[in-house]
Amino acid sequence: MKISQEELETLQLNEATIELAVNLIKVNGYVIFEGVLPEAKVTELREAFKASMKWFLDKHGEAIYLNKTGFNEGTNHLGIFLPFAPPFNDPLVIEHPFALAVIDRLLGPDYAVTLFSSNTSLPGGRKAQPVHPDYGARFGDLCKVSLPITDLVFNIPLVDVHEGNGPMEIWPGGTHLLPDNYYGPNGPNPEELAPHMHSMKVHMPAGSILIRDVRMWHRGTPNRSDEIRPNLALIYSASHRDNTVQIPQETYDGLSERAKHLFRWQKIGYPAIEPTHE
What is the pTM of this model? Predict the structure, then answer.
């Protein structure tokens, strides 16, 4: 979606924009607001992220990245938990007015952040990730109806995302609307069904906002460029899930009241972490 100049200047979405975004997530499983973060903020975030990634690879690369262990084997995709510190905890990241205006309508007033992380496609990947939703069945094999939206992923790409640098591939328009038990181990296998279904690569300019239902099938694709393709990644949840985010008390005390509410389930009073592999 293109955002009007007035909306960009006021940081307030028009009612028609909110309604369209909400309905797109309900029907297609995702929405994109293109290029809404200021260029200077994107540059600041990108340079800080590249420094954090370099620190991580220098310290842990041989064990995690070079050996390509586990889910990342051959894909060169890395999920990195970020420190809750500037510039990553900037208000335009953790409580962007555009995102919250939409999420308010979908999750109600009491949702919270349950993931503060990143997802990066590094050069040299040999294959795509398996097709997957981010969360499994809420009730195992018991629930045979589709459940309401309870968790939304929020991504900010820090570089322009295009065909050559590992864009996310998604299966929109229904994979987030399956009965709950379909997301469990006894449901249909996305890897078997996906090749017969419509998919698309998500191309978007740096500083865009992508909001998607965690249940929508997707996968990372290989990065054929010479530069990393980083995404900031948060999850907003209607019910209590993970509390892995460590926030120093002084940092928490300095947040807005809205941000305090969003992070109330996390580890308040703990030191900010170093960049850590998911």
Answer: 0.95
